[in-house]
Amino acid sequence: MSEIVLSVNELRTWYDSARGPVPVLDGVSFDVQRGETFVLLGESGCGKSMTALSIMRLLPTQFQNNISGSVNFDGIDLLRLPEVAMRRMRGRRIAMIFQEPMTSLNPVLTVGAQIMEVLVQHSSLRGASARAEAVRLLDAAGLPAAQQRLDEYPHQLSGGMKQRVMIAIALAGKPDLLIADEPTTALDVTIQAQVLDLLKSLQKDFGMAMLMITHDLGVVAQMADHVAVMYAGEVVEQAARADFFKSPQHPYSQRLFEALPALGKRGRELSVIPGTVPLLDQAFNGCRFAPRCHRAWEACEQHAPAWVTLPAGRGLRCLLADNTWSAHAPAAPPAPPVVVHDAPTHTSGDADLLVVRELKVHFPILKGLLKRAAGYVYAVDGVSFSIASGKTLALVGESGCGKTTVGKAILQLLSPVQGQVNFAGIALNGLRGESLRKRRREFQIIFQDPFSSMNPRMMVGDIIAEGMRAQGVEKDQQKRGARIDQLLEHVGLRSDAKTRYPHEFSGGQRQRICIARALAVEPKLIVCDEPTSALDVSVQAQILNLLKQLQGQHGLSYLFITHNISVVAYLAHEVAVMYLGRIVEHGPVEQILSAPRHPYTQALLSAVPTLDQDIKRVVLRLDGDPPSPINPPQGCHFHLRCPHVHAPCRERYPDATTFGASTVRCFLYNDAPASA
Amino acid sequence: MTRWPLGITPHNVTIAAWSLAPVALYFSCVAFYHLKPVWLWTDFLVYVLIASMTAFFVAARRRAHLREPLTRIIQNRTAMVCLVVLAAFTAIGVLDSVHFRQPAAGAAAAGQTDRYAPEVTSVLDALMGPQHMQMETTYSAPLSLVQYEKSTVERADGVHERVFPRLKFAGVGVAAGDAHTRDIVRRVVVGALSGLLATAAVAALFLAWYAYTQASPVRATFRRVLRGEGDVPWRAMWVTLLALCMIVGVVVALADGYHVFGTDKVGKDVLYKSVKSIRTGLIIGTLTTLVMLPFAVLLGILAGYLRGWVDDVIQYVYTTLSSIPGVLLIAASVLMLQTYIHIHPELFPTEAERADLRLLFLCIILGITSWTGLCRLIRGETMKLCEADFLLAARGFGAHPLAIMLRHILPNVMHIVLISVVLDFSGLVLAEAVLSYVGVGVDPSTYSWGNMINAARLEMAREPMVWWPLLSAFVFMFVLVLAANLFADVVRDAFDPRLKRR
Questions:
Q1: Among all residues of chain A, which has the CA nearest to that of B409?
Q2: Would you list the DSSP string of B178-230?
Q3: Cα torsion B315, B320, B321, B322: sign
């Protein structure tokens, strides 16, 4: 049963600029077979989404009429189809799910209206029968209480539920092909696991082909039958999943694997791909990856590699696979020496630099004319931990669990903070005004989004100097300039960057500038709020290496806030897992990751897609969504989703149980459960 | 590179010399002709406005986030065509904003140096010649030789007769009929040709300068400009300038012998009135914004950044203010001002100064009633910025709130300010017309399009109809407002971050 549903051939999409056409896709070819999942893998700016939009003919206006090649769908060339016929194609035969479930639903229409709109368009169902069909579809998409949900509006649903609605809408036309553009990127890991499972089972039931776009190797490992790796508008490698994961052939694919952080790579430097994905508005002579490739030689700069078909349905775009060239290729360079990070040289023992006791942040919900507090958002509800100097504590949890709020509360950037924050022996939340302002020098923050964390109207030099100016570091102009140069070099940028504006830099470079800005005031603690989640894998490795190296040199402490378990495994010394404003489990990283005790930690870890093909892992599926912090459930916060729930869990919050260096808050481990 | 003390480079010195030249010229004229400079309040504010705009553009050239949209405006054909038109209007407005009093008639002969004529004259008046002093008796049609109304004339033989009498200052020595037509045609041709020559001269000078800065031969540069190559749409600007110069040439040539747009009820030249109204329109359009900007920006940022009770107070003030009908507030203030002027005549030596104060007051009142919209926008934008990570980072560094507002918030709301200033301009010019029409606008003695339209109420109702003052006011206002609107569209697009093209 190898019937080809979609066959893309030499697809080229470009836009016209002042300097001539700029191709975003340059000769993309692949086939998708009925019933299989074909994954397009690549970093941002590689043209994955463009491929999907070109197939659907939903490109932005500047691409109008700028497509060549052919897209054969079930024997019909979509690119030659008139728009009227194409409109009948979309939704009915080819459906699409987008990355952002928040913006792809119309906020002023009910969920039911949006599903039925598609049904009316593509079937003869009307009225009550359409409604029944909509309920059936929502059921199929795994939305609980579908009947009631039909009359709700998108804002009443959580992100995961919205994505299920999107899937139901996509299924409404009973499509032969489902295009899913990063369908789980905006979702939390436990929800991602649910949605991926759902997509897989639906595919089986409906027998449709799926074209999935992702940047996440873990998702590929879990979902794909076939993989195509894209780079700079081209497909550079194509293979069946098992082959791809066993032996990636293209140097780019190989490097992607090596750049992934993992527990096994602790203590060494991650292998990085230098530089960034090239901009497409340049003429390429040779291989597009050559400037970043560790195997490149002169020929790569001059000859664009042709597509080479290999046995077992594999293909490669690399001179190394091309017989005319591979003979001239230099031998593979020896594997880069494994740089082992020294343990921090000047740690002053295990003195607790930061001690947080019973930290609480309750945001009041103001209502009415007099702005009375009608209730509270229990964003952080009694969190305690400590960080020793030179160590890293990772704060892990899903979105909305309050981990970012903890970071900001420690830095005294939020006002209603209760509990104790002791920094180097001084209670920070007792400080006010000038004394707090002076202290700010010692703790800094790096934000998630490198695009919004710098004032776009200031030059990089001024951005870095801001903290020095506020804190009175290096008052002399010349010395300050020299210090900025030194900082820029320290984070791997050239010193001429200081007279340029942030928008001239890529995401990774901006994150380096943010790090330099934080380092400028010589802090002892840096709160890293998801510093790599907006970055591509290859750039993430560069930033993680830099952070680790800086820790070694300066004895910095990090509070590393993240949802990415593999980053935690690579970087952290200790882990604290947060759920709904409280820490449920806390301990050394090896212990938590290898033998998690709390049911939530177990579910969280099992939901993370792994690359290992051999291990038949059991995904502990969590049902439903995290409850709202406005109205946390009675008893243990987790009991609504917990597979091991029993009576006391519903009544009161469990106390901490200690296992060596780690603590866990769960009745499973409480020797004397409640006197219920 | 040579280090210059205090940034005084030869380049800066040249610029300073160029900007001081008109000032020097003014003072030498004053000394030579024994003039008495008159400083009107609005004149002073016009100078301040021009100085601050120049400073803004000099500063903007060094800032990428401003330079980029400005470059986009410069490369836009519509914007540059409008800019040429606006520049012409502005030049007239500026020339009309330098005032003085001439020595009283016969004062020089009598050896008196401190006696001056009662009326205040501007440079524009001086350039336009004595035309504005020449009054006909009453209405006359455009380019006409005779009055619009019959009047009884006593002939030489003593017989009284109802005729259309000849105008005193139009078509002197030109016979009615063919000779009249021929004279008009001759003037049109001469005017158009001199406009062409003027443009050619300017273009030649420009070409020499442009070729010099581009370091390319003059001929090649000329060909490139003609083909419309290069980033700046010079060709479109030339064509506009040519059209403008030819129109001005024709009008000047005709105005020399005729009343191009006829005369009004008291025999005043309508063209002169329309041209003098330009200054009023420009001042209302720009000074009002100047008055409201400090309120809007300062209060908007304070409300958005400090929140709490400061926000409540500021919101309360602007909500209250914007719920009072603007016209009511304006009418009340203007009436109060009129009474004040009436009670204190000794404070205002000339009629012009009295009228000027009323104009300024109108600007202030318009400003006070119109800052609320911009303030609300800036408050919202500031609140949005407060959530931005870079602001949080600045607070994390312990930066002073004042520094945060100045360095982080102000530059990031400037584009809103710029857009709203340009967008408001045309609305304010029209608002003046409406207010003067209602009777609470500028002083009746001030030349303004609103006053002309107000007068047209009666002129349109009489039989035969007098249409030219209304048409004249309409044409001038239409050209100015259209140019300003088109320009504003381009400015808004250029500064709109959502339209950022790569």
A1: A455
A2: HHHHHHHHHHHHHHHHHHHHHHHHHHHHHHHHHHHHHTS-HHHHHHHHHTT-S
A3: positive
Letter for the amino acid at B480?
L
Total length of chain A: 676
Q: What is the pTM of this model?
A: 0.79
Q: Which pair of structure tokens corresponds to residue B427?
A: 């609305």
Choose among B53, B92, B39: nearest CA to B290. Answer: B53
Token pair for B215: 């370091």
Compute the distance between CA of residue A583 and CA of residue A577 in angstroms, rounded to an integer. 6
Residue B499 has pLDDT above 90, yes or no: no
Tell me the chain A residues in contact with residue B405 when contact means C-beta distances shorter than 8 Å: none
Higher per-residue pLDDT: B201 or A499: B201
- CB-nearest to B397 from A447, A456, A471 is A471
Q: Are A409 and A527 in contact, with CB atoms under 8 Å apart?
A: no
Mutate: best of A466, A499, A504, partner B, most B CBs <10 A: A466
Cβ-based neighbours of A215, under 8 Å, separated by 6 or more: A41, A42, A43, A44, A48, A182, A185, A536, A537
CB atoms A501 and B408 under 8 Å: no
**CB–CB contact B64 A447 (8 Å):** no
Kindly identify which residue of chain B lies nearest to residue A407, measuring between CA atoms.
B396
| Mean pLDDT for chain A overall | 85
- Write the secondary structure of A239-275 as one string of H (helix), E (strand) and C (coil): EEHHHHHHCCCCHHHHHHHHHCCCHHHCCECCCCCCC
Who among A438, A439, A466 is closest to B394 (CB)?
A466
Compute the nearest-CA separation of B311 from chain A (Å): 14
DSSP B344-362: -GGG-SSHHHHHHHHHHHH
What is the maximum span of chain A, computed from C-alpha positions, in angstroms? 80
Tell me how far apart the alpha carbons of residues B368 and B375 are, in angstroms, rounded to a whole number.
11
Closest Cα of chain A to B431: distance in Å?
A: 35
How close is the nearest chain A Cα to the Cα of B306, in Å?
A: 13
pLDDT for residue A675: 38
Does residue B117 come out as left (phi exceeding 0), alpha (psi in the -120 to 50 range) or beta?
beta
Q: What is the ipTM of this complex?
A: 0.78
- Does residue B390 sit at the A interface (CB-CB below 8 Å)? yes
For A421, phi then psi, to 5°, come to -125, 105
Cβ-Cβ contacts under 8 Å, B407 against chain A: 455, 458, 466
A663 pairs with which residues across the strands? A586, A658
The string of DSSP codes covering A384-443 is: EEEEETT-EEEEE--TTSSHHHHHHHHTT-SS-EEEEEEETTEEGGG--HHHHHHHGGGE
Is 80 exceeded by the pLDDT of residue B72?
yes
pLDDT at B246: 93
What would the pLDDT profile of A627-663 be if each residue is shown by its tens digit? 888 888 888 888 888 888 888 888 888 888 888 888 8
Of the listed ranges A191-195, A502-506, A576-580, B496-500, the least confidently predicted one is: B496-500
Mean pLDDT computed over B28-57:
85
pLDDT, tens only, B407-436: 899 988 888 888 888 888 888 888 888 888
Q: Which member of A440, A445, A454 has the closest CB to residue B398?
A: A440
Amino acid at position A23, single letter: P
Q: Which of B63, B390, B397 sits opposite A470 (nearest CB)?
A: B397
Closest-approach residue (CA) in chain A for B392: A413
Statement: residue A23 has pLDDT above 60: yes
Over the range B444-471, which residues count as b (16 or more CB within 10 Å of their CB) and which as e?
A: eebbbbbbbbbbbeebeeeeeebebbbe
Cross-sheet strand order for the sheet of B121-122: B36-38, B99-101, B121-122
Q: Do A411 and B63 touch (CB under 8 A)?
A: no
Backbone angles phi, psi at A173, to 5 degrees: -90, 5
Q: What is the pLDDT of residues A102-124, one digit of tens each?
A: 788 888 889 989 988 888 888 88
